[in-house]
Design brief:
The relative contact order is 0.11. The protein folds into two domains: 4-85, 434 Repressor (Amino-terminal Domain) (Orthogonal Bundle); 90-124, no CATH class. The chain contains seven helices and no strands. Helix 2 packs across helix 3. It is an all-alpha fold and 126 residues long. The longest helix is centred in the C-terminal third of the chain and has 25 residues, at 100-124.
């Protein structure tokens, strides 16, 4: 399994690519959108290349600027649109506040959906 630094690096790269497509093409524009300096963006890229740990306060600043919870930046293989989607928090909050029997039902449905999605993906790759 990937370590947290590699997961963050992958998500950071995909977020910056999406932001570049949305018009934040320079490191300066990207830094402004992410709430950090251009030098910090440069340093993050260097730290990622060298496999060094990124400071948590920097990651928290980025998460705050994107208006997402920091933990999302450490979810492996999360689609960028879902990572940046604020609706995911509502789903999680509703799940947590649901009675245990409802949580169990949600888990079963989610497992079936994941199994179905994987099966379809595998069939497409054949």
């Amino acid at each position: 399994m990937k370590d947290s630094n590699k997961i963050f690096a992958d998500n950071f790269k995909r977020i910056t690519q999406k932001l570049a497509k949305d018009g934040h093409t320079s490191q300066t524009a990207l830094a402004k959108k992410l709430g950090v300096s251009q030098k910090t963006i440069s340093n993050i890229n260097i730290q990622i290349e060298e496999g060094r740990q990124i400071r948590l306060d920097t990651i928290q600043t980025i998460a705050n600027s994107l208006k997402i919870d920091m933990w999302k930046l450490f979810v492996p293989n999360i689609p960028v649109d879902l990572l940046l989607n604020k609706e995911l928090n509502k789903v999680i909050e509703n799940y947590i506040s649901a009675p245990p029997e409802s949580q169990e039902y949600i888990k079963r449905v989610a497992e079936k959906e994941a199994s179905y999605s994987k099966k379809n993906k595998d069939e497409k790759n054949k």
